[in-house]
């Protein structure tokens, strides 16, 4: 059976720089910083006091009181973003075969906030008095399950839990599911709400987070001053459709997904393989998966770019391995300089930004870039976005455990 073409017809997002996909993209174009002091808990006793929070999100504006009480924040963010994506897609769900519609939504940590809250409560009251909603609120797959329930999607429903690569795995897996004939519509993305005392403390003690108090120099990917990532939260959701299905209903097509590469370093629990070997193979796979797209045809990479010393150095090396001299003639930027690192949501939000970069022919910047690093010597679109002319773009995600995922997108020419 020939492989089917897959397009993006809807998007939704809640991010540290905007409460819709459009707001988030406009902010990314403008180089808006979403990092600020933590407000969700008292961080005064912890080393890390800043994060990239979703701002102005009020559950009561989107859910009834019982629903808001019994849905974790990461699930709430996913549902609201999914509603936006479905609305933008223009799908008439009453006329669709919903057994041919599926959901893939990643979350790296899920309802960690509920685990912390229930542990504290049960140490005082006894563990047999744990909330009966704890498990369904806490398990990582519940965002995917609740999104499927919301829209009645009865096809494949799953949750990749691959740390920082999860959002890209979700988008890539959904792309393959449609391309290979198993579904016509997939609602896919990632969600995370891990700005909690335990999560912040855990990433701090493993020396993964930036510990300074100045938001303007906290998440500085590829800069010589980088010293750790900034925890972010949010959700990004995309509606993917088989091309002919989308065209038959006159859908507005935003971009096309054409390739997906996924590999494992099999090297270390947190550190990337030397020279980004696994990430390089994922990028090569994505190009090959698209029918052999030439490296020189790629004009932009939305990099994983976490602002950690090893990641940014390794990812730069991986790009040079795959693209050779062309690496110096293409643009590479990290929108995590604005959003922080949204863990399981990162790849999904960055896929949205990459698709919109192709649509608008505009490169979002890497903000906060001040001091060049000789080992990171590519064009990182420093501090200000710019117009460009490009047909293909990659979105990279590289996760703890050695997970690498790369999605190749193409400008929709109509």
UniProtKB/TrEMBL annotation:
InterPro entries: 3-oxoacyl-ACP_synth-2 (IPR017568), Beta-ketoacyl_synthase (IPR000794), Ketoacyl_synth_C (IPR014031), Ketoacyl_synth_N (IPR014030), PKS_Beta-ketoAc_synthase_dom (IPR020841), Thiolase-like (IPR016039). It comes from Collinsella ihumii. Involved in the type II fatty acid elongation cycle. Catalyzes the elongation of a wide range of acyl-ACP by the addition of two carbons from malonyl-ACP to an acyl acceptor. Can efficiently catalyze the conversion of palmitoleoyl-ACP (cis-hexadec-9-enoyl-ACP) to cis-vaccenoyl-ACP (cis-octadec-11-enoyl-ACP), an essential step in the thermal regulation of fatty acid composition. Its EC number is 2.3.1.179. It holds the Pfam family Ketoacyl-synt_C. Keywords: Acyltransferase, Fatty acid biosynthesis, Fatty acid metabolism, Lipid biosynthesis, Lipid metabolism, Transferase. Pathway: Lipid metabolism; fatty acid biosynthesis. The gene is fabF. Transmembrane segments: none annotated. The keyword Lipid metabolism applies. It catalyses: a fatty acyl-[ACP] + malonyl-[ACP] + H(+) = a 3-oxoacyl-[ACP] + holo-[ACP] + CO2; (9Z)-hexadecenoyl-[ACP] + malonyl-[ACP] + H(+) = 3-oxo-(11Z)-octadecenoyl-[ACP] + holo-[ACP] + CO2. Belongs to the thiolase-like superfamily. Beta-ketoacyl-ACP synthases family. Gene3D superfamilies: 3.40.47.10. It comes from the Bacteria. One of its GO terms (molecular function) is 3-oxoacyl-[acyl-carrier-protein] synthase activity. Residues 3-411 form the Ketosynthase family 3 (KS3) domain. NCBIfam families: fabF (TIGR03150), PRK07314.1 (NF005589). This is 3-oxoacyl-[acyl-carrier-protein] synthase 2.
């Amino acid at each position: 059976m020939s492989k089917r073409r897959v397009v993006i017809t809807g998007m939704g997002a809640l991010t540290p720089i905007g409460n819709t996909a459009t707001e988030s993209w406009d902010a990314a174009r403008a180089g808006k910083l979403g990092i600020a002091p933590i407000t969700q808990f008292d961080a005064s006793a912890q080393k890390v006091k800043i994060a990239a929070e979703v701002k102005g999100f009020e559950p009561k504006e989107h859910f009834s009181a019982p629903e808001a009480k019994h849905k974790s924040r990461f699930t709430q963010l996913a549902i609201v973003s999914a509603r936006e994506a479905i609305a933008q897609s223009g799908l008439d769900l009453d006329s669709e075969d919903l057994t041919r519609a599926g959901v893939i939504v990643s979350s790296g940590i899920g309802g960690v906030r509920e685990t912390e809250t229930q542990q504290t409560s049960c140490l005082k009251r006894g563990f047999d008095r744990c909330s009966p909603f704890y498990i369904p609120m806490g398990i990582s797959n519940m965002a995917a399950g609740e999104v499927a329930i919301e829209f009645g999607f009865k096809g494949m429903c799953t949750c990749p839990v691959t740390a920082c690569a999860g959002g890209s795995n979700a988008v890539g897996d959904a792309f393959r599911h449609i391309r290979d004939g198993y579904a016509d519509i997939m609602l896919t993305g990632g969600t995370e709400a891990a700005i909690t005392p335990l999560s912040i403390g855990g990433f701090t003690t493993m020396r993964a987070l930036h510990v300074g108090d100045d938001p303007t120099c906290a998440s500085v990917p590829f800069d010589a001053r980088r010293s750790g990532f900034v925890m972010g939260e949010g959700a990004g959701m995309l509606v993917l459709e088989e091309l002919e299905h989308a065209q038959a209903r006159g859908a507005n097509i935003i971009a096309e997904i054409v390739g997906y590469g996924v590999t494992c370093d099999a090297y270390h629990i947190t550190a990337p393989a030397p020279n980004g070997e696994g990430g390089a193979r994922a990028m090569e796979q994505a190009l090959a998966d698209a029918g052999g797209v030439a490296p020189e045809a790629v004009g932009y990479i939305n990099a994983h770019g976490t602002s950690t010393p090893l990641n940014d150095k390794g990812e730069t090396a991986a790009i040079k391995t795959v693209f050779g001299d062309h690496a110096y003639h293409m643009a590479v930027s990290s929108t995590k300089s604005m959003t922080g690192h949204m863990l399981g949501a990162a790849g999904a939000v960055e896929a949205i930004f990459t698709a919109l970069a192709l649509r608008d022919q505009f490169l979002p910047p890497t903000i906060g870039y001040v001091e060049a690093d000789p080992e990171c010597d590519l064009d990182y679109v420093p501090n200000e976005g710019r117009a460009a002319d490009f047909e293909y773009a990659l979105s990279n995600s590289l996760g703890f455990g050695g997970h690498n995922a790369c999605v190749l997108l193409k400008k929709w020419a109509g």
